[in-house]
Amino acid sequence: MNISTNAFYPSSSPMASTCHKLILQTFITFLLMQTLTAQNSNLFREYIGAFSNGVRLSDVPINSFIDFHFILAFAIDYTDTTSPSPTDGKFNIFWDNTTLLPSQIWSIKQANPNVKVALSLGGDTVHGLPANFSPCSIDSWVNNAVISLTSIIQEYNLDSIDIDYEHFSTDEATFAASIGQLITTLKNNGVISFASIAPFEAVNSYYSALWRDYASVIDYVNFQFYAYDATTNVSQFLSYYDKQSCMYIGGKILASISTGVDANGLSPANGFFDACTVLKKENKLPGIFIWSADGSKADGFPYEQEAQKLLAIPYY
Ligand SMILES: *[C@@H]1O[C@H](CO)[C@@H](O)[C@H](O)[C@H]1NC(C)=O
Ligand SMILES: *[C@@H]1O[C@H](CO)[C@@H](O)[C@H](O)[C@H]1NC(C)=O
């Protein structure tokens, strides 16, 4: 279902770019990098609930010396049917809501004042099909999304949304305007207090368009470093980290790993925590996230413990 974006989005005249502009831009970027580079902070985030394997919030070890975010995966604007179809921003619950109930979210927050809970939107697939970002128009999508998400967020006592669309039936400008307006409205309405995005290289054109216009309402960048090859080594990881710091200038870019079967990117065995230590020594590690608690459950969450321990230590 391809959408003619011209119907609702005026085409902008491309700015003529010259060598001088590029050089100036590079210089300004360099200045910004010097002043806006993220600093260390102790935030750990973990996705949970996508695989419906019964993993509970209370299964995951929580270090009380850090900030901890669970991220429910996922709410998707698709019908929850055997042949799911897009709903133009009307979100349904697709995380394991037989286990991850409002009462459990209430309990984990009561027991751990350092815990907040976010809701991730989109994800890779919906019942085996790609979960496409497919608005009918920016206005209708934003209106439907604000109403349906407000209801879910209030029922589950959530604090935040995370944007994880990975497939698109529309252009970058429409994605940026729709998501930017959604985050802005939910923040202005007091429904959420922070927001994050979860890009990877292949979708950077969409997320950098969003970042260009709405960086000020995006608190964290959950960059999916585990989308890189499984042969990634420490020096490659560090160069990817710097590259993405230039893509999302001024952003708090979290280092990340994937656990369970099919884990790619720089693994703990190949030096993920060494790379994090290097970033931390350079005072540019705002946090770490793991995809996912579902994948870590079988091994007893060793990397969750190690990541939180590393973040809890003030300096090296
Ligand atoms: C789980 O979510 C689905 C889809 O929104 C809903 O139909 C169902 O009632 C929910 N189950 C529980 C236990 O809340
Ligand atoms: C990391 O991988 C790159 C590309 O394969 C290679 O050139 C480099 O030598 C490797 N670094 C280390 C420390 O193994």
TrEMBL record:
Name the UniProt key words of this record, in alphabetical order. Answer: Signal
SUPFAM superfamilies according to UniProt:
(Trans)glycosidases
Q: Which residues form the signal peptide?
A: 1-38
Instruction: List GO BP terms, alphabetically.
Output: carbohydrate metabolic process
Q: Name one Pfam family in it.
A: Glyco_hydro_18
Which residue ranges does the record assign to the GH18 domain? 42-314
Gene3D superfamilies registered for this protein in UniProt: Glycosidases
Q: Which CDD domains match?
A: GH18_narbonin
What superkingdom heads the lineage? Eukaryota
PANTHER family attached to this UniProt entry: 2, PUTATIVE, EXPRESSED-RELATED, CHITINASE 2-LIKE
Record protein name field: Chitinase 2-like
| Taxonomic source organism | Dioscorea cayennensis subsp. rotundata
